Write a sequence for this structure.
C-alpha cells in the first residue's frame, strides 16, 4: 500500500469515528443547551449552538419549586431497593445454578429463559388487577415487587456466570474445615464476586430507573410518582416550559451516566451477556 | 462433580433421614425466593392475562368479568386500527433493526482497528445506550419540535422540508420520528455485541490472508462475515422480537398518533389497557401478538435448520 493511500485511509477512518461521536452526543448536548438558555433567548436565538448568555435559573426552579426532587427521591428509593433485593435473590439463585447438580435445575433455567421471551406489556392488565385489591397500586412497594420479579431472571444468569469463574476448591476446603455451606458461600465466595455484585447492582438500578410503562399504569398520584412518570405528566401539563423540562431531563440523566462511566470499561470484554438483553 | 451426587450413589446411606433431606433441598432453598417471586409476579399474571382474552374485563364496569368466548377475537378481526398497528409494527421493527444493525456493524468495524484515543471514542459513541428510553424519546421529540429543536430548521435549509414543521405531526412520515430515536438509541447495542464477536476472531487469519494477497474487501467477505454470522443471526432475531414489543419511545413521542399512524401492536395494547381500561380486549391483542412472535421465532429456527442441512 502506498503511503498517500494509507494516510487517506486513516483520515477517512478518523472522520467516520468523529461523525459517530457527533451524532451520539448531539441530542444530549442540545438538552443541556436548552436547559441553560434563559426563556427570553429561547425563541429569539432559535438554532444557535450556544446561547449568548447562559443561566442556571431553570435548574434552580426545578429543584426549589417543583415536584421533581420528590420524583427523584421516589426513583432512587424504588431503583435502589430493587437493585438491592434483586442482587440478594439472584446471588442465592445464581449460586444454586452454579454449584449444585440437582433434579429440576433444567426446568429452573427453562422457566427463567421463558420469562425473557414473552412481551411484558401482556402483564400490565393482570398485574394491575392483582395488585389493586392488595393496596399495592399507587405504592412504591408494589412497584419494587414488580421490578424485582422482572429483573431477577437476568440477574441470576449474570451472577451464575460470575460464580462459575470462581474455583470450587475454595468452599470445599472451608466445608472440610467444618464450615456450613451457607457460611462458606456468604463469607468466602460472595466477597470474591464483589465486582460481579457491583455490575449486577448497576444493571438492575439502571433498568428500574428507566422503566416507564408499568410505572405509568400502577402509579396515578404524584406523591409516589417515579421520575419517568413525573417528567411525562409535567410535559403534558406544562408543555411550554422547555427550559425547565430539559433541566429536569438532564437531572434524570445523571445517575444513568454515572453508572455508564463505571461500567463501560467492561462492556465489550465481559458483559456481552448483559448487552444481549438491551 | 459434587459431593451430593456421590453420596446419593452410595449403596447404603447411613446418614439420618433429616440430614439427607437437608442436603437434597439445599439448592432449592437457595433458589426458592427468586422462583416464588417469578411464579407469583410473572407466571400467574401471564395465565390470568390469557384467561382475560376470553372474558369481558373492564376496570370501570363492576359487572364485567363474564366469559365471552371468542368475541374479542371477532372484534379484533374487523378492527382496522389493529390491522394498521400490525403493519406499523412490521415497518417499525424492520426499519429500526435494519439501520441499527447496519450502522452498528460499521461502528464495530471502525472501533476494531486500534488507534490513539480509542477508549475515549468508544465511551462517547456508546453513551446513548445508557440514556433511559423515556428520556431519549423526549429528547428526540424536542429535537423534532420546531420551537426548540434545530432539526426542522436544518431540514428546511437542506430542502427536505418545505417549511420547518414537526415531523411527529405529519401523518405520512411520523413513524420515522420514533424510528430515528430508536436507531440512535440502539446502534451501541449492536456495536457492542458485534465488536465483542470481532475481537474473538484470531488475528493470524487476517495476516495469512494478507500474505496471500487478499484485499480488504475479500478479507471482510471470507473471514469476518463467516465468523460474525452466528452472532448476527442470533442478535438480529432476538432484537427484532424485542423491538416489536418495545413501545416506550412511541408512547413518549407520539402516543400512537397522529390518527394512529404510529401505533404499533405493543403500544395499542398499552393504550387499550391504560387509557380505555379494557383489560379483556388488551389481553386478546396481547395473545395474538404472542402467537405471532412465537410463529416468527419458529420460522427462523426452521429456516436455520434447512440451511444447515443444505450446507
Amino acid at each position: 500500500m502506498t503511503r498517500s493511500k494509507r494516510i487517506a485511509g486513516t483520515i477517512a477512518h478518523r472522520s467516520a469515528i468523529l461523525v459517530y461521536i457527533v451524532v451520539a452526543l448531539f441530542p444530549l448536548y442540545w438538552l443541556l443547551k436548552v436547559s441553560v438558555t434563559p426563556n427570553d433567548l429561547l425563541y429569539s436565538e432559535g438554532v444557535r449552538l450556544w446561547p449568548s448568555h447562559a443561566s442556571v435559573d431553570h435548574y434552580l426552579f426545578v429543584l426549589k419549586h417543583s415536584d421533581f426532587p420528590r420524583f427523584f427521591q421516589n426513583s432512587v428509593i424504588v431503583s435502589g431497593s430493587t437493585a438491592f433485593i434483586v442482587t440478594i435473590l439472584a446471588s442465592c439463585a445464581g449460586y444454586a445454578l452454579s454449584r449444585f447438580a440437582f433434579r429440576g435445575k433444567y426446568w429452573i433455567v427453562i422457566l427463567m429463559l421463558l420469562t425473557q421471551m414473552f412481551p411484558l406489556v401482556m402483564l400490565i392488565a393482570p398485574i394491575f388487577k392483582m395488585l389493586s385489591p392488595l393496596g399495592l397500586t399507587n405504592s412504591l412497594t408494589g412497584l419494587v415487587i414488580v421490578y424485582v420479579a422482572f429483573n431477577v431472571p437476568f440477574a441470576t444468569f449474570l451472577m451464575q456466570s460470575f460464580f462459575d469463574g470462581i474455583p470450587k476448591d475454595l468452599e470445599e476446603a472451608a466445608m472440610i474445615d467444618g464450615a456450613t455451606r451457607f457460611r462458606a458461600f456468604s463469607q468466602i465466595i460472595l466477597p470474591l464476586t464483589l465486582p460481579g455484585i457491583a455490575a449486577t447492582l448497576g444493571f438492575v438500578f439502571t433498568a428500574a430507573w428507566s422503566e416507564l410503562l408499568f410505572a405509568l399504569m400502577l402509579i396515578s398520584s404524584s406523591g409516589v410518582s417515579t421520575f419517568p412518570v413525573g417528567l411525562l405528566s409535567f410535559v403534558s401539563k406544562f408543555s411550554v416550559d422547555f427550559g425547565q423540562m430539559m433541566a429536569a431531563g438532564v437531572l434524570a440523566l445523571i445517575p444513568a451516566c454515572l453508572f455508564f462511566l463505571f461500567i463501560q470499561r467492561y462492556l465489550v470484554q465481559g458483559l456481552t451477556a448483559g448487552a444481549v438483553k438491551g | 462433580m459434587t459431593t451430593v451426587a456421590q453420596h446419593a450413589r452410595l449403596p447404603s446411606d447411613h446418614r439420618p433421614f433429616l440430614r439427607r433431606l437437608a442436603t437434597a433441598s439445599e439448592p432449592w432453598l437457595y433458589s426458592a425466593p427468586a422462583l416464588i417471586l417469578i411464579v407469583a409476579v410473572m407466571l400467574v399474571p401471564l395465565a390470568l392475562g390469557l384467561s382475560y382474552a376470553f372474558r369481558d374485563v373492564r376496570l370501570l364496569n363492576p359487572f364485567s368479568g363474564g366469559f365471552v368466548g371468542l368475541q374479542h377475537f371477532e372484534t379484533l378481526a374487523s378492527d382496522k386500527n389493529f390491522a394498521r398497528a400490525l403493519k406499523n409494527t412490521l415497518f417499525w421493527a424492520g426499519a429500526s433493526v435494519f439501520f441499527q444493525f447496519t450502522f452498528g456493524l460499521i461502528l464495530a468495524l471502525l472501533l476494531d482497528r486500534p488507534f490513539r484515543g480509542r477508549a475515549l471514542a468508544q465511551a462517547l459513541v456508546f453513551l446513548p445506550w445508557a440514556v433511559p428510553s423515556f428520556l431519549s424519546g423526549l429528547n428526540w421529540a424536542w429535537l423534532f419540535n420546531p420551537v426548540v429543536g434545530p432539526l426542522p430548521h436544518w431540514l428546511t435549509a437542506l430542502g427536505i422540508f418545505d417549511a420547518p414543521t414537526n415531523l411527529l405531526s405529519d401523518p405520512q412520515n411520523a413513524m420515522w420520528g420514533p424510528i430515528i430515536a430508536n436507531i440512535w438509541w440502539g446502534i451501541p447495542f449492536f456495536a457492542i455485541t458485534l465488536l465483542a464477536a470481532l475481537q474473538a476472531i484470531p488475528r493470524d487469519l487476517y495476516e495469512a490472508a494478507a500474505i496471500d494477497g487478499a484485499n480488504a474487501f475479500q478479507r471482510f467477505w471470507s473471514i469476518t462475515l463467516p465468523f460474525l454470522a452466528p452472532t448476527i443471526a442470533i442478535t438480529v432475531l432476538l432484537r427484532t422480537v424485542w423491538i416489536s414489543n418495545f413501545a416506550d419511545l412511541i408512547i413518549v413521542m407520539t402516543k400512537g398518533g397522529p390518527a394512529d399512524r404510529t401505533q404499533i401492536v405493543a403500544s395499542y395494547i398499552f393504550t387499550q389497557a391504560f387509557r380505555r381500561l379494557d383489560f379483556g380486549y388488551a389481553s386478546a391483542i396481547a395473545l395474538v401478538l404472542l402467537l405471532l412472535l412465537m410463529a416468527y421465532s419458529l420460522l427462523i429456527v426452521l429456516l436455520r435448520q434447512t440451511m444447515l442441512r443444505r450446507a
In short: Residues 270-278 of chain A have pLDDT under 50 and may be disordered. Chain A touches chain B through 90 residues (CB under 8 Å). Chain A has two domains: 3-44, 64-277. Residues 3-44 of chain A form one domain.
